[in-house]
Amino acid sequence: MSEDEAPALRSRPAWAALESHFAEVEARHLRDLFASDPQRGERLVADGAGLHLDFSKNRITDETVMLLGQLAGECGVEERREAMFAGEHINVSEDRAVLHVALRMPRQRSLLVDGVDVVKQVHETLDRMGAFAERVRSGEWTGHTGKPIRNVVNVGIGGSDLGPVMAYEALRHFSRREMTFRFVSNVDGTDFAESTRGLDPEETLFVISSKTFTTLETMTNARTAREWSLAGLGGEEAAVAKHFVAVSTNAEEVAKFGIDVENMFGFWEWVGGRYSMDSAIGLSTMLAIGPARFAEMLAGFHAMDEHFREAPLAENLPVLMGLLSVWYGDFFGAQTCGVFPYDQYLHRFPAYLQQLTMESNGKHVTLDGAHVDYDTGAIFWGEPGTNGQHSFYQLIHQGTRLIPCDFIGFMHSNNPLGRHHDLLMSNVFAQSEALAFGKTPEQVRAEGTAEEVVPHRVMEGNRPSNTILAERLDPHTLGTLVALYEHSVFTQGAIWGIDSFDQWGVELGKALAVAIIPELQADEEPELAHDSSTNALIRRYRQARRAE
Ligand code: F6P
Predict the structure, then answer these.
(1) Closest of 116, 429, 155 to residue 269, by C-alpha
(2) Residue 289, pLDDT score
(3) How many CB atoms neighbour CB 379 within 10 A?
C-alpha cells in the first residue's frame, strides 16, 4: 500500500454501521438505558479466568456490542490472535514473532517456532531462575565476604523496570519480608544514590535487567553499581560474580560488562520489553515471592491467555475492553482512559499500563505503512483509589471531557483491618454509580439547595466506566489482570491494523541525547549545529556547569 492510500478501517461495513449507530447512542443517557432495561446490570457482564467484568455502565446497547464484534470479525482480530499464538512474525517492522504467551505455557505444552520448542526453553530458564532464587532466599548463595544476600537491587528501565517494580509492589504481601528490594531506573544519579542508601554492599545483589544490554540509562547505572559494590568490597574484581547477575537476550554484551554468563538468565527476541515481566525479567519478582508463587502468577497469565483464545468475542474480557476503547476513542473522541485500582498494592499498576498501552498503540501508520485516518492508542493514566477521588476525580465528574474509567476492586483485602475494606469498596461502587447517573437539578433542588448554587451541584452523569472485580490480589490474580490488559491492547491494535509490538518513536530521542552528551562535556566550546533553541539551552547549561 502506498503512504497516501487510506487504510481499510473506515470503509468496513461494521464501521459505517457503528457511525450511524453512534448518533443514536450518543443521544441516550445511562439513566435511560438502565431505566428502560432493568436486567442491563446483570446482562452486560462477563467472567473469565477469575475476573468479573461489569461493562454495563458504558454508553452502549446490545447492538453496540454486536456491531463492535462484527468490526472485530471484519478486522480479523481472531485470525491475528491465532497468528500470534502460532509464532508468526506479526511484529512486521522488526520481523519478529510476538510470543509472550509462550512464557506462561505449562511445561507439558510445546510450541515450535522456526523448528525450536520455545516452551522447553522457557521452562529450562524458569528452572535455572528457580534454583538461583532458592539459593539466594535460603542464604546458601552468599556474597563475596560470605554474608547472605539481604538486598536485591534491580537495575533496568522501561519494560525491564516497570514490570518488576509493579509486581514487587503488587505482591509485597507475599514477599520475603526480611529482604529489601529496590529498583533503579533513571539515569538521574539521585535514583541510584537514594536506592542504594543504607544498603550494605556485602549483602547486596544487583540484577542488571536489559533486553539489549545497551540501554544508556541501565548501562550507566550498572557501571555505577559495580563501582559502588567494589568500593564496599575492597575493590576485588572477583566480587562481581557474587553480587551481579544479568537478565538479557545479549550474552555478548553481558560478558563484555564482566558478568559471567553462568550468572545470566536469558530470554528471547520474541519477548517485547513491555511484555517481559513474566520472563527472566521477573527474576527480582521471583526472588521476592519465591518460585512457587511466581509459578502461580504465570498460571494466572495463562488462564487469561486461554480465555482470550477460547471465549466467544461477546464474552471475552480483553476483547470487550479493547473494543470499548476503540468505541470511545474513535466514535466519542475520548482522548484518555483512567485506571483506578482500589488496592494500595497496585499503586504502580497505572504506570506499568502506561508503557504497555502507550508504547504499544501509540502508532500513526498501519502495518503496511499507510497513515491512519482515525485515532489510535488512548492516553492511559491513573492512581489508586480512594486517593484519586480527593484529587482529579472532580474533573471526571463535572469537567467537560469524556474520560472512560476502569475501576479495579477486590472482594477480600490482604490486610483486613476493621471496616477499611468495606469503606474502600463502597467507594468503588459509589464512584461508578455517581459517574453514570449523576445528580439532576431536581435532585439538587430537593435537597434544599439555593437556586443560584444548583448548577454548580448538578452532576450530568452519563460518564462511562468498567468495573473489574477479583477475589483477592494474589500472584494468580496479578497475572490475569496484566494479561487482560495485554490482550485488550492486542485487540485494539488489530482493529486499528497497527504494529503494537515495535517502538520506533523512542529511538530518535535516544540518538539525539547520545549526540548531545559530548557537547555538554567538551572542554572547548563546541560548534553547535542544532536549532537556535537547543543551541541556547546547551550553552546555558555549559555556562552553569563552568560556574560550579
Ligand atoms: O523505551 C524503549 C525501550 O526499548 C522499551 O521498549 C524497553 O522496555 C526499554 O527501552 C528498555 O530496554 P532494554 O531492556 O533493552 O534495556
Answers:
(1) 116
(2) 98
(3) 15
Nine cell digits for residue 435: 459517574
**CA torsion through residues 319, 322, 328, 330, sign:** negative
d(CA 66, CA 59): 14
| 167/345 Cα distance (integer angstroms) | 9
In the prediction, which pLDDT does 548 show?
A: 83
d(CA 171, CA 193): 25
How many angstroms separate the Cα of 70 from the Cα of each of 181, 322, 459, 512?
47, 14, 34, 44
Whether the upstream peptide bond of residue 386 has omega within 30° of 0, thus cis, is: yes
Give residue 310's Cα distance to chain centre: 23
Q: How many angstroms separate the alpha carbon of residue 159 from the centre of ligand 1?
A: 6
Q: Between the CA of residue 57 and those of 45, 386, 406, what are the distances in Å?
A: 10, 20, 11
Of how many residues is the chain composed? 548
Residues 188/137, Cβ–Cβ less than 8 Å: no
Most informative mutation of 207, 211, 253, 279 for ligand 1 (most atoms within 8 A of CB): 211
Ligand 1, atom 8, lies closest to the CA of 159
Q: What pLDDT, on a 0 to 100 scale, did the predictor assign at position 4?
A: 55
Which DSSP state fits 142? B
Task: Name the residue among 332, 254, 318, 304 with its Cα closest to residue 22.
Answer: 332
Rounded-to-integer distance, Cα 264 and Cα 446, Å: 68
* Regions of the chain with pLDDT less than 50: 1
77 CA to centre of own chain: 21
Neighbours of 138 (CB within 10 A): 9
pTM: 0.97
3-class secondary structure, 370:
coil
User: Any residues with Cβ below 6 Å from ligand 1, and which?
Assistant: 157-160, 210-212, 215, 218, 273-274, 359, 503, 506
Active site amino acids: 359, 390, 510
Cα(356) to ligand 1 centroid in Å equals: 12
What is the Å distance from ligand 1's center to 81 Cα? 24
